[in-house]
Amino acid sequence: MAASLASVITSRLTFLAGVLLIGGAGLAEIPASDLRNVDIRHTDMVYSLPDYTADAWKLRSAFLRKQVLFSAGLLPMPAKTPLGPRVGAAIEHEDYSVVSVLLETYPGYYLGGNLYRPVGKSGPFPAVVSPHGHWRYGRFENSELNSVPGRAISLARQGYVVFAYDMVGWNDTMQTPHGFAGPREDLWLFGSLGLQLWNSIRVVDYLVSLPDVDGNRVGVTGASGGATQAFLLAAVDDRIRYSAPVNMVSFQMQGGSRCENAPLLRIDTNNVEISAAFAPKPQLLVSATGDWTVNVPKREFPAVQRIYRLLDAESNVEWRQFDSPHNYHQDSREAVYEFFGKHILGDADSSHFSERSSRPDQLSELLYLWGRLLPEGAVSHAELVRQRIAAAEADTLALAIDDAESLQNARSAFSERLALALLAEVPAAGAIEAQTVSGGDLVLGREAIGDRIPARLLNADSRTGRPVLFVHADGIEAAAQSAVGKELASRGTPVLLIDAFQTGSAVIERDIAAAGRNAERYYHVFNRSDDANRVQDILTAAAYLRGHSGSDSIDLVASGRAGLWALLAASLDSGMGAVVADLDEFDATNDAAYVEGLYIPGLRRAGDFRAVAALASAHARVMLHNAHGAFPVAWFNAAFAASGRGDSLSVSADAPPDSDILQWIAQ
After folding, report:
1. What are the two backbone dihedrals, phi and then psi, of residue 431, each rounded to the nearest 5 degrees?
2. How is residue 259 annotated by DSSP?
3. Looking at domain 3-30+399-666, which CATH architecture does it have?
4. Cα–Cα distance between 617 and 614 in angstroms, integer?
5. The pLDDT value given to residue 543
6. Beta strand pairing status for 96-106 and 91-92?
7. Which among 214, 193, 189 is positioned nearest to 204, based on CA atoms?
């Protein structure tokens, strides 16, 4: 197993050994209904934070960073092309100045903002990254409940360089809609959340490039959707040293906009845990009694404080709450000024941070694109999507395999990406519970997870030959009645059949929309897709079969679309020996085929079946059949050849005779 895959799986197993995020201890019995169908996680559930040891948290926080980056489409990190700042005329005031700025964060894509600087002070100055939330006027909102210019002006007066910038689809940043994305984009993980996080990273690039900025003193603050941007940036960019998310870090609401919700982002986690990943660096949680942060003093802050305490940094985290509706008003701003003043400026005198009145300049002076067109070469939304998907595809093609060295490089990169796309685990045999049900069949489940996998074990007491896991796309009965299933059973070796998630007897009606607000819209932000759960069920069943039989390795045979699930599982699990996978004529180059028949967000970004080729070639003997002409057979050939295991791969465009399948797994 490649080191990167091992680290991802180890961190997940460390987390799963604790309590479930949705509360409660491990289950004593497999539930009557699979909890993956029953406990639909969504943005307005009430979450909690497990208890960690210091070592477990270090693994967990490293994993969370990768999970955030991957879900945002930023792992691997895109190439940082020149920002080419376009700067408007400076507006000079007595104690601060402001200019409009346009940054080219991707080729042909522009982010607008305003740069505020101190006047009459000597630098280099600390810097503050200042995203706005979902107020009507964006970075120009200037109301009693929130003044974005007010906080930028006040911070500049106090001695900071501040960059206040747009969310996507607002003000100067007009080339995409605000909450864009769709199933195809989700396969490649390009959407508004990822674009905003990328813009924030590029804002840091811009600020630290300025000669009057001290790159070792960079903070971030924002409220509401701006706070979501703040704690995501703080979690993934080490250059952020101070963070103050305002009115967003909550166990009971995770974000209401697509710009705050990307597929995979909050599977097995939540905003509180992500914000805790900033520990041990200084962080202030500001909350209000009139919104979803009402319980911060009693619930969210103590949870984050426990993490800081593990790292001997309890004094670096604080909270403030105000009796107010949702806001970033003057009281909240002054709390942030005081916190930043103490930690960044080394000034603990709160009287120095009272906000003075200010008057923002005219929009005609603050908007870079007021009276101007976008620069020549600016791309459309459709062209930006095409560009980013092409760049992701280039990341995969750069890992093409032609020798042992390139194979090792491919395995290292693909193992991490594929594990993050599937968010699956290879459980230990002892972590699988099995219970007998009526008729002598079984149900399997992972300890403390609540999944329920119907299973049938044939020749259960046999110790002859290597055990076989046979998975049919239509479940147990279809597998048992198939010619291959009957032949496998007749050999006398143990054969395990399963109803993978939502197949066979495991199919149940679900009303996802009824689970809660936005539960259906953001389902894949919080929950694994059905196909990802099927891959997990194969891994779970394989672990059970190895444990039951006492064998270190099993064989895996899969018919119909289950062959694709099986290949994905085999790429993660080194305990698979012979693998026979029906490719069901799947067109692995067609995004629509994934959307319709193998929907796993991030799978294309992870390298799809080209990643599988690199990983499975390390340990498995693979027979592929019913291969579509567009399936990446060349990648399989190259990977097996580079590993010196060319005779461990067989590929056919047609279905082989049953005798060939039996012979393949008998070798």
Report:
1. -95, 5
2. G
3. 3-Layer(aba) Sandwich (3.40)
4. 6
5. 97
6. antiparallel
7. 214
Structure tokens at 483: 């010619």
3-state secondary structure of 31: coil
pLDDT digits (tens, 9 = 90+) for 143-159: 999 999 999 999 999 99
pLDDT confidence tier of residue 447, bands split at 50, 70 and 90? confident
Number of neighbours of residue 336 by Cβ within 10 angstroms? 25
**What one-character-per-residue DSSP string does 386-452 give?**
HHHHHHHHHHHHTT--SSHHHHHHHHHHHHHHHHHHHT-----GGGEEEEE-GGG-EEEEETTT---
Phi, psi of 512 (to 5 degrees): -65, -40
Pick the CATH number of 86-389 from 3.40.50.1820, 3.40.630.30, 3.40.50.170, 3.40.50.800: 3.40.50.1820
User: What is the spatial distance between Cα 504 and Cα 498, in angstroms, rounded to a whole number?
Assistant: 9
> If we measure between CA atoms, which residue out of 350, 358, 304 comes closest to residue 331?
350
Owner of token pair 């709160």: 350
Domain ranges of the chain: 3-30+399-666, 86-389
Query: Which residues does 526 contact at the CB level (< 8 Å), separation at least 6?
Result: 40, 41, 42, 43, 254, 266, 267
- Nearest Cα residue to 283 out of 323, 322, 227: 227
Amino acid at 297: P
Residues 6+ apart with CB under 8 A from 304: 49, 249, 272, 275, 276, 279, 283, 285, 317
**3-class DSSP assignment, residue 188:** helix
